[in-house]
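in:
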C-alpha cells in the first residue's frame, strides 16, 4: 500500500478522519508526526479497535443510537468505520442506510453534530462557481445530491435530506470501493413545504416555501454548471427528488453530463435483475421476459423507472419489438389502472397506458382481469397488497413473483410473512426493506431485499474508473443482467433473487465489469481498453487499511 503524504501533524492530524488512526498509530509515527502524548500510550491495532466498537454497538439497541455511534466513528476515523462496515455489512447497512436513515433524516436537525458535505441554498444564486472551491479536494468521483423533497417514503424533509446523501455515499465506498476522500454529499436547499419543519425552532434549512418553476430549474442549472466545471469527470447522482423534477432533471442532463437518478434508474435496474433471477428460479429463459404479465402499483418516478428499465431490457438486450414489450405492463396510480380515456398524464406514463382496459380499475379488479405473473409495489402505501389481492393473483399463477418495494418497512405493500402465507409458500418474494426469515409449514424462507445497493456502487466504480462520459440505458441494462447472473446456484436454489449482501464487493465488481465493457463498446469511456477488466477495476477499489503516513513540508 502506498504511503499517505500529509502536511498535518499533531492534533490537526488526529482531527482528520481520513488519516487518523486513533490508538493504532505506530510508535515511530507518533514521534515523526508529533503525536506522542496526544494518544494513550498503549498501541491498539485495528483488530482491537474493531472489537471495542462492536462491543459498544452490542450494548446500544436503538437503531438511531447505533447510527449515531457509527456516525461519530466516521467523523473521527473513516478507515476504521469502513473496515467495520464492510465486514459487518449485513447488520450495519440497515443502520447507515434504509430503514434507519429515514428516522435519522426526520430528526436530522436535532441530531446534527458537525459539518459533512456541502449545502447550496437558493440564496446562493450567483455564487456557486466560487462556492465549489470551498471544498478542499480537487478530486471528487461521486456526488450524491438531494433537494430533500421526497426522502424515502417520508415526504418533504427539506435540508434534513442530507442524511440520505451521506448514507448513500457510505455504501458507494463500502460496496464499490470509491475512496472516501473522493465522495461529496450535497443538499440543495430551495425551501420546504413541510409545515412542521417551517415551525421547528431547531430546523437547519431555509424557513421558506419551496422555489418552483423556472426559478428552481435555474438554480439547479447553476449548481450543475459549477460542479462539472470544478470536477469535469464527476458522477452526479440525483437522490430523492420529487416528481416532476426528478424526471425532468434526469432528461435534461443525462445526455450532457455524467448523471444518474438512483430512484428511477437504480430502482429500475435492481427490479429488472430480481425479475430475471426469478425467471431463472422458475426455469424460464430470461429472453422470454416479454411473456410475463407485469402489474406495477405506483406511477411515480420509481414505478416509471422500473417499467422503463424492464421494457428497455426486453427491447435492447432480448430483441423484443416495442409494442410487444410495452404490452407486458399494467400500471396503476393512486386512482387505479391507467387505462383508456385517462387524461392529464405525463408523456412517460402515456407509454404504459392500456387501450384495452377501462380506466381506473381497482387493483383487485385489475388482478382479476389481467391474471398477472408479476406484481411490483412502488406506491409508498403500506398494506396495499391485501390478502384478497395476493390470493386472487395466486389463484391464476402457481409461482407468483411478488415484490413490495416501497421503503421504509411500514410503507411496504405487504410483509414477507403475509406473502408466503397467502401463497402457501409458493411465491418468489423480494422487498425494498429487509424482513427476517419466515417459517411456513415447517420450511424456512429467507426473503430477498431489493436493495439498490446491488447496482449503484458498481455503477459508480465503473463510471469513475473508466471516466465515463454519460450513463446510457444499455449500461444500466447490463448492470441488471450482471446482477441477475451474480447469484450462485445455491442462492437460486434457496429462492433468493438477489445475492447475499455479504458478497457486496464481489457483486459490485461484476456489475462494474459489465457496465465498463458496455461503456467502452458505446464509445463512452475516456481510458484505453485494459487487458484485464477485473484487475483494472479491482486496482481502483479502495481498501480500508491503515497506510504509512509521511509528513511533507510546504
Amino acid at each position: 500500500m502506498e504511503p499517505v503524504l500529509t502536511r498535518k501533524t499533531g492534533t490537526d492530524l488526529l482531527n482528520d478522519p481520513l488519516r487518523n488512526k486513533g490508538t493504532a498509530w505506530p510508535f515511530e509515527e507518533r514521534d515523526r508526526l508529533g503525536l506522542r502524548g496526544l494518544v494513550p500510550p498503549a498501541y491498539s491495532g485495528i483488530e482491537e479497535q474493531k472489537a471495542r466498537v462492536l462491543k459498544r454497538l452490542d450494548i446500544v439497541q436503538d437503531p438511531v443510537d447505533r447510527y449515531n455511534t457509527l456516525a461519530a466513528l466516521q467523523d473521527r476515523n473513516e478507515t476504521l468505520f469502513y473496515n467495520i462496515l464492510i465486514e459487518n455489512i449485513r447488520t450495519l447497512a440497515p443502520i447507515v442506510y434504509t430503514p434507519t436513515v429515514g428516522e435519522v433524516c426526520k430528526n436530522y436537525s436535532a441530531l446534527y453534530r458537525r459539518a459533512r458535505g456541502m449545502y447550496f441554498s437558493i440564496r446562493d444564486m450567483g455564487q456557486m462557481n466560487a462556492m465549489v472551491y470551498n471544498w478542499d479536494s480537487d478530486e471528487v468521483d461521486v456526488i450524491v445530491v438531494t433537494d430533500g423533497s421526497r426522502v424515502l417514503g417520508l415526504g418533504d424533509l427539506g435540508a434534513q435530506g442530507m442524511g440520505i446523501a451521506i448514507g448513500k455515499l457510505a455504501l458507494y465506498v463500502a460496496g464499490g470501493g470509491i475512496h472516501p476522500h473522493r465522495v461529496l454529499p450535497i443538499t440543495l436547499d430551495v425551501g420546504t413545504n413541510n409545515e412542521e419543519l417551517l415551525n421547528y425552532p431547531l430546523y437547519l434549512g431555509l424557513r421558506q416555501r419551496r422555489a418552483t418553476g423556472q426559478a428552481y430549474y435555474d438554480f439547479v442549472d447553476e449548481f450543475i454548471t459549477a460542479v462539472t466545471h470544478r470536477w469535469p469527470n464527476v458522477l452526479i447522482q440525483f437522490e430523492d427528488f420529487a416528481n416532476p423534477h426528478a424526471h425532468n432533471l434526469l432528461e435534461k442532463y443525462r445526455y450532457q453530463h455524467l448523471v444518474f437518478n438512483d430512484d428511477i434508474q437504480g430502482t429500475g435496474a435492481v427490479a429488472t435483475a430480481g425479475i430475471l433471477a426469478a425467471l431463472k428460479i422458475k426455469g424460464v429463459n430470461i429472453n422470454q421476459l416479454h411473456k410475463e404479465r407485469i402489474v406495477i402499483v405506483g406511477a411515480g418516478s420509481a414505478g416509471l423507472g422500473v417499467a422503463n428499465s424492464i421494457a428497455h431490457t426486453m427491447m435492447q438486450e432480448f430483441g423484443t419489438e416495442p409494442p410487444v414489450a410495452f404490452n407486458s405492463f399494467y400500471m396503476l396510480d393512486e386512482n387505479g389502472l391507467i387505462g383508456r380515456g385517462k387524461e392529464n398524464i405525463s408523456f412517460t406514463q402515456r407509454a404504459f397506458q392500456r387501450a384495452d382496459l377501462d380506466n381506473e380499475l381497482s387493483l383487485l379488479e385489475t388482478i382479476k382481469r389481467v391474471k398477472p405473473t408479476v406484481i411490483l409495489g412502488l406506491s409508498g402505501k403500506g398494506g396495499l397488497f391485501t390478502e384478497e389481492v395476493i390470493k386472487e393473483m395466486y389463484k391464476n399463477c402457481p409461482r407468483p413473483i411478488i415484490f413490495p418495494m416501497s421503503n421504509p418497512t411500514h410503507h411496504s405493500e405487504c410483509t414477507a410473512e403475509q406473502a408466503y402465507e397467502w401463497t402457501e409458500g409458493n411465491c418468489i418474494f423480494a422487498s425494498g426493506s429487509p424482513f427476517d426469515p419466515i417459517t411456513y409449514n415447517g420450511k424456512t424462507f429467507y426473503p430477498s431485499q431489493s436493495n439498490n445497493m446491488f447496482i449503484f456502487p458498481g455503477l459508480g466504480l465503473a463510471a469513475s474508473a473508466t471516466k465515463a462520459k454519460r450513463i446510457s440505458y444499455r449500461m444500466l441494462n447490463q448492470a441488471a443482467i450482471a446482477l441477475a447472473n451474480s447469484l450462485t446456484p445455491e442462492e437460486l436454489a434457496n429462492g433468493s433473487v438477489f445475492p447475499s449482501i455479504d458478497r457486496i464487493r464481489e457483486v459490485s465488481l461484476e456489475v462494474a465489469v459489465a457496465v465498463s465493457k458496455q461503456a467502452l463498446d458505446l464509445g463512452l469511456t475516456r481510458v484505453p481498453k485494459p487487458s484485464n477488466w477485473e484487475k483494472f477495476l479491482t486496482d481502483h477499489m479502495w481498501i480500508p487499511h491503515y497506510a504509512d503516513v509521511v509528513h511533507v513540508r510546504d
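note: The mean pLDDT is 96.
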